[in-house]
Amino acid sequence: MFVRLVYESFRRQKRRKLLAGAAIAFGVSVATAMIGVATDVGDKINRELRSYGANLVVNPQEDSLDVEIAGVNVKPPSDGAYLSEADLPKIKGMFWRNNIVGFAPVLPVNVAVNESSTKNTALVGTYFSRQLHFGTDNFVTGVRATYRWWRVQGSWPDDDSRDVLVGERLAQSLGQKTGGKVTINGQSFRVTGVLSTGGAEDNEIIAPLGLAQEIVGKPGVVRRIYVSAVTKPEDAFARRDPKTLSPEMYDRWYCSPYAQSIAFQLQEAIPHSHAEQIRQVAQTEGTVLSRIEGLMLLVTLASLFASGLAVSAAMATTIFERRQEVGLMKALGAGGLSVASLFFAEAALLALLGGMVGYAGGSILAYNAGRWIFDSPITIQPVLFPLILCIAIIVTFAGSIAAIRRAVKFDPVYALRGEG
Amino acid sequence: MISTSASMRRAGAHHTSMFFRMLMRAAILRRGRAATALMAVIVAATATTAMLNLFVDVQSKLRKEFRNYGANVVVVAKEGQSIVPDVLAKTKSILAGHGVAVPFAYAVARTSNAEPLVVSGTDFDQVRKLNSWWSVTSWPKEPHAALLGVRAASAVSPQGKPFNLYFHGRPISLTPSGTVRTGAGEDSRIYLSLNDFETWTGVPPSTIEIAVSGSPQEVNATIQKLQQAVPEVEVRPVRQIMEAEGRVLGKTRATLLAASVLIIVTAALCVLATLTGRVLDRRRDFAIMKALGASQQFIGGFLAAEAAALGAVGAFIGFGLGIGIAAWIGEANFGAPAVPRLEVFPVVLTGCIIVALMSAIVPISLLRQVQPAMILKGE
Question: Do B40 and B123 fall into the same domain?
């Protein structure tokens, strides 16, 4: 009898049930999409924050002091320790390798340009967009991945070539143009482009790493490595010294993508190195990220509240419209409990159906929103599905309770006479 | 003629007072249902106000956070020149409090072992504001106190003892006050107060680093003003900071916009459903009105006026609540309440009235088709 009542109610009131179901589906869609965005937005924004450039730097362990002002090194270039270029691909063998967006080695050397006889111009050897292999892994890295604000007028040189980029300001003072030649330490090189960065590089020559090594006279060396990694905002635990941690705490620290633990792992991967965070980038992105994440969390709560209200309003309206039915049932001797359980069963069925449709709709919504905003889709974890269904049922019940209570309390006489 | 028009006016006045009486009575007698409808409008208006207010305000809040990345504009002396003192004064007057300007002077000095080392003179109070990421153990306060980069510290004064530096043979004795760690070039430098630095080396500042607050347009306007006011120097934007900020802010805004649209549409649908339900619920009232001779226009006007009144009252209350919620979110997340944006109010008010009116359209056309007798019979 109970099942038949529910079945008939759905069969006979298709339009009304469809409306209520649509309201639930819509509310659940919004909730699903917002939960998806809220769980993923941190990661997405974190990757956008990588446009601030490298947040970690790897120096040689026995490093001497830098003596440079505005990018110009005053010390003789032969001074100082080096890292080995052969160790670079090991960065992609680290525990947090997938968080490494890119890295670029640098090897600065002072050179004499054109007619000048003093070596007072900085030439920096680096990777532009170099293919590297680690195990079976192939990846491309270099300044084009780490420094996205670098602009080249002309074209980027090939990493295996002997072509160079000339900084904007230097090009201006030399009268250098794209496609021309520049004499470095008496040798002539082709200039494929003029580089503009708004920083010290505007006064420098940027060359493939191999060329810089040749000028220094030390094949296979790099001075330091700039690493751009997606990190977790720093907290008190991140600042702990790994040496003082208990084994379990150490594992937890090691397996959290803090700037500190990634620096620690870089140090392990590159022999004789000292890695640390570039605080300007690493520290600030933590605060910016936590602000944006906090904002999105609050907005998600607001949207969950709004969708909950929409579902409640729809349920309240549908139940209120069926007072006469309630009156009839009560007149025939149905108790408050059986009336309420009928409505709750109907609500649960609606919530399940609406929740499923809404989950699908919300996934599509989140997918497209991600593609539109971040150029990469936001996927809803299937783990969320039962959670979303639970939320749908709870919200639908919560929205129905007040209306059901009123319907149950209603005097059947008035209801049947159509006065309410 | 005169009497006819007077009676018409009287009839008109009667008509209007009846109209308002019905509106008032509908609100008072059907308190429960009217309250539910009003609730829905208030909630929608609150959500909309809060989201719009946040959307407008969050940008300036986030920009303030982005200023933690430090200077977005640098003033550099042209080749072979230095910055004369009045450039800093002019820069500060152009900024007029909307940013921090910090002068830096650089020189290469030698330690007592004749090791070269970069020494910089600057204004410590301003640097503290500009570069909040500097991890400093203790800022220097007295004259001849120096802030040592962590790597420089281990080279010149590993135990924190006073040390001497030489610039072209001229010595200065300094007391380390603390160390600075940044992970970049600063770690290898020694910082002095600008005063100590200039009396020792005679080298004036060569760079002014500026953090200009505001939108990209405001920053660019400041750059132009600086270029005009002090043509003897070069003013450059720091592209690393400006471009990345633009990107991140753009994405955040877009996400917030998408969320706002979803929330506002949901709220509007909620209002639509509730108000439509409320009108359909009172079919009998309208059937009686019709049976008593009310015209279709009258009923339509009545419903529209009721909806508009609900929308307006809901918008007023919701606006107040929404401002409160936005302020709370601002306080909770950014530590400063979101500033109430009054320009949001007309948008919320019109939005609420339009949605309320829309919710009256469907029932009006439905009621038009129905014969009063059918409804009164309860069919």
Answer: no
Selection from B363, B359, B367 nearest residue B295 by Cα? B367
Which are the contacts of A155, defined by CB distance < 8 A and separation ≥ 6? A192, A193
- What 3-state DSSP class applies to B377? coil
Please give the Cα distance from B211 to B281 (Å, whole number): 61
Please give the Cα distance from A280 to A282 (Å, whole number). Answer: 6
Residues B289 and B223 in one domain: no
Kindly report the backbone phi and psi dihedral angles of residue A176, in degrees, each rounded to the nearest multiple of 5, phi listed first: -85, 145
Say how far residue A174 (Cα) sits from the centre of its chain: 42
Task: Mark whether B83 and B207 lie in a shared domain.
Answer: yes
Q: Is the ipTM of this complex over 0.85?
A: no
Instruction: Tell me the C-alpha distance between A310 and B43, whole Å.
Output: 10
Q: Are residues B49 and B95 in the same domain?
A: no
pTM: predicted TM-score of the whole model, two decimal places: 0.80
Kindly report the number of other CB atoms within 10 A of residue A337's CB atom. Answer: 9
Nearest CA in chain B to A370: B255
Domain annotation covers residue B242:
no
Q: Cβ(A271)–Cβ(A84) under 8 Å?
A: yes
- Domain chopping of chain A, boundaries: 2-46+288-417, 55-277
Check if the beta carbon of residue A120 is closer than 8 Å to that of residue A110. yes
Nearest CA-CA distance, residue B96 and chain A, Å: 25
B44 lies in the same domain as B118: no
Q: Cα–Cα distance between A359 and B191 in angstroms, integer?
A: 58
Q: In angstroms, rounded to a whole number, what is the distance separating the alpha carbons of residues A13 and A319?
A: 12
- Cα A163 from Cα B19, distance rounded (Å): 85
Helices and strands: H and E segment counts in chain B? 12, 10
CA dihedral over A212, A215, A216, A221, signed as positive or negative:
positive
pLDDT tens over chain A, length 420 residues: 677 777 777 777 777 778 778 888 888 888 888 888 888 888 888 888 888 888 899 988 877 777 777 666 666 555 678 899 999 998 888 888 888 989 999 998 888 888 776 777 889 999 999 998 888 888 899 999 889 889 899 899 999 988 999 998 888 888 877 778 888 888 889 999 999 988 888 888 999 999 999 988 888 899 889 999 988 888 888 888 888 888 899 989 988 888 889 999 999 999 889 898 888 888 888 888 888 888 888 888 888 787 777 777 777 777 767 777 777 888 888 777 888 888 888 888 888 988 899 999 999 988 988 888 888 888 888 888 898 888 888 888 887 887 788 777 777 777 666 554
Full domain range(s) for residue B211: 72-237
Residue B333: which residues within 8 A CB-CB, separation 6 or more?
A291, A294, A295, A298
CA contacts within 13 A on the Cβ side of A199: 17
Across the interface, of B108, B248, B378, the residue whose CB is closest to A49 is B248
Identify the residue among A66, A311, A414 best suited for mutation to test binding to B, counting B beta carbons within 10 A and taking the highest.
A66
Please tell me the predicted confidence (pLDDT) of residue B93: 86
β-bridge mates for residue A2, sequence order? none
Q: Do B253 and B223 belong to one domain?
A: no
How far is the C-alpha of B249 from the C-alpha of A49, rounded, in Å?
10
| Cβ pair B70:A280 closer than 8 A | yes
What separation in angstroms does the CA of A333 have from each of A319, A328, A405, A420, B150? 20, 9, 17, 20, 86
Write out chain A residues lying below 8 Å of B155, CB-based: 65
A-chain residues near B263 (CB < 8 A): 30, 299, 302-303, 306
Residue B2 in any domain: the answer is no
Structure tokens at B366: 């439905």
Q: Which residue has the tokens 């250098």?
A: A176
3-state secondary structure of A241: coil
Interface test with chain A among B136, B248, B264, by most A beta carbons within 10 Å: B248
Number of domains in chain B: 2
